[in-house]
Amino acid sequence: MKKIFCPICFDEGKFSFISKNNYKIYNCKNKKCKHYFLLEPKKEQGIHKRNNDLTIESDQNLKEYGERNKRLLKLFLKKISRRKKYKFLDFGSGCAHISRTFKTYLGNKAKIYCLEANHKCRKFYPRWDLIPVSNLENIEEKIDIIYMIEVIEHLKNPKEILLNLKKVMDKNSLLFLSTPPGYYDEKLTNAYDNPTHIHFFTPESLNNLLRSVGFKKISFDSFSEMYPLKTKISFVKKIIYYIKLFFKKTFINTQRKYYKKKYPFHLVGFTKLEI
Ligand SMILES: [Zn+2]
Fold first, then answer.
1. Separation of 27 CA from ligand 1 center, angstroms?
2. Fewest CB atoms less than 10 Å from the CB: which of 100, 133, 162, 247?
3. Angle, vertex CA 231, rays to CA 225 and CA 239, nearest 5
4. Are 98 and 90 in contact (CB under 8 A)?
5. Whole-angstrom distance, CA of residue 274 vs CA of residue 221
6. Cα of 99 to ligand 1 centre, how many Å?
7. Distance (Å, rounded) from C-alpha 254 to C-alpha 230?
8. What is the rounded distance in angstroms from the CA atom of residue 207 to the CA atom of residue 27?
9. Which of 249, 245, 268, 229 is nearest to 66 (CA)?
């Protein structure tokens, strides 16, 4: 039988289970990796199909995530040093609702590059004052923060992409990553829901990947900034929420509260170059 190798640590892998999308999911045997993956993704497997009019999709997302995006921006600005003009890179920008929010609040104080594999998306970006780029060579300056939100699981070759990203980074640049984790039990994650996902990272496998290309290890944390506030909550509940937020003890997804520590819903964190 043909040997299977983990695309992250190159240790031996094995067949694990058939996912709800009827894909064969493989798992790395290395206990310090445990990466889940598809063996032979199709050529354009990772690319999300989109509405012909991206504005509709983008507006809908803005409605749902606009307030969340604002909190995410606050978090980013806390982490990067104050500048006259910020340089951001939205990697895998899709319908660009996140960068639209950022641009609305930062205006001329930010230059926001948007890189997206689906070329149909690019023509919409200038409408929102965002800069479309088809590859990183088009960026001739160092970026303050690159955000890859729910993107890395779509990449056929994440190692190559991360190596490329280093070209637009210096010692102060930050990379913000989020991805739904891979577990054996499909019910604990939405990683297997999307048929365009190729990789299902564990904290160990994501850090193995980062370390192998010269990034620092991430201490994964739960960030309330990743989740929209429930809109129909009462005033009292909102106050309680903000008090909890203040003490950094909050995590919005109550259903998964119990499993929060053992089975986080997202792997999220910041990393920098190991220099
Ligand atoms: Zn592995």
1. 8
2. 247
3. 70
4. yes
5. 20
6. 33
7. 11
8. 16
9. 229
Whether 256 has a pLDDT exceeding 80, the answer reads: no
Residue 244 pLDDT > 90:
no
* Domains identified in the chain and CATH numbers: 11-38 (no CATH), 54-229+267-271 (3.40.50.150)
CA of 226 to the centre of ligand 1 (A): 27
Mean pLDDT of 90-115: 97
How many other C-beta atoms can be found within 10 angstroms of the C-beta atom of residue 43? Answer: 7
Structure tokens belonging to residue 163: 């190596």
pLDDT reading at 108 higher than 90: yes
- Which helix (H) or strand (E) covers residue 214, if one does? none
pLDDT at residue 100 above 80? yes
pLDDT tens digit string along 169-227? 999 999 999 999 999 999 999 999 999 999 999 999 999 999 999 999 999 988 989 98
* Encoded tokens for 157: 């070759």
Q: 183 CA to middle of ligand 1, Å?
A: 14
What residue type is assigned to position 108 of the chain?
N
| Cα 34 to ligand 1 centroid, rounded to whole Å | 6
